[in-house]
Amino acid sequence: MTPRLTRLRSSWLLPAVLSTTAGAVDVIGFLALGGLFTAHITGNVVIVAAHYVTGGFSQIGPLLAVPVFMAVMGLVTLASRALARAGTLPLRPLLLLETVLLAGFLLLGVGFGRFDNADSSMAVLAGMLGVSAMATQKRRRTRQSPKPGTHDVPPHSRVRRRLCRRGRLGSQVRFLGTGAASRP
Predict the structure, then answer these.
(1) What's the domain range around 103?
(2) pTM of the model
């Protein structure tokens, strides 16, 4: 096998496994924990807002998910920087941390089965382990981004910006997307 083929094969494998893991954890969390999104935190924000507007919300999991996600991302960022300063690449330790958190999520889910009460302490703990694992994965992905400064920009935005720079999109899109052209 040529080195280029090996590089190509290894470049897609980890993102594919992590994406599949995030999707599976999100579906399992949503079904087993009464509507808690573990991987897509914006979904929890929408659910909390919708229930707030209708006045019929009382689940603790989605309320805790956003602050837990942010706190774990902050802690993982600090740990990642400390590892990098010590001369260790943070990829393996972060993947190990994610694995441990996912194992806890799995063990609680299997041990207690489907949670009839999404507000029970075990259901909330399982949900926060899943949220923490996904926050670790998110932080790992953004820290391993190939181009500095692009990790917070979604891929579709990068494509749009590249097309705008090459002049293949109209001035209206350039105005809305990048500010590269003056408003028509």
Answers:
(1) 3-148
(2) 0.69
